[in-house]
Amino acid sequence: MARQLPLRIPMITLSLPGLIFLYVMLFLGVIFLIWVACEMVRKIREHRALQYRLQCTICGMIYEDRSAAVLPRCPRCRSLNERLKVKAY
Ligand SMILES: [Zn+2]
After folding, report:
1. Domain tally for the chain?
2. CA angle (11, 6, 16) in 5-degree steps
3. If you measure from the C-alpha of residue 44 to the centroid of ligand 1, how many angstroms do you get, rounded to a whole number?
4. 24 falls within a domain
5. Are residues 44 and 56 in the same domain?
6. Structural domain contains residue 79
7. Which of 1, 26, 45, 80 makes a 20 to 30 Å CA pair with 69?
8. Ligand 1 centroid vs 43 CA: distance in angstroms?
């Protein structure tokens, strides 16, 4: 019968404070990644929501225009407006 040699698994020795530190850092890293992903999704949704929204430079009316016109016309004062970004506060 062949003798079986004890299986040697390489181990990393870690003290208890080191283990707690590693656990906390991994936990915070996961929280940070989730936060970054949520922020990216929020910005994408905000961009899509405000993509066609315009603000008239004459009367200040905020309206939506989904046409391909370069200078869309304001429905209230009929002035032409550039497609500038409307800030969401
Ligand atoms: Zn207007």
Report:
1. 2
2. 25
3. 28
4. yes
5. no
6. yes
7. 45
8. 28
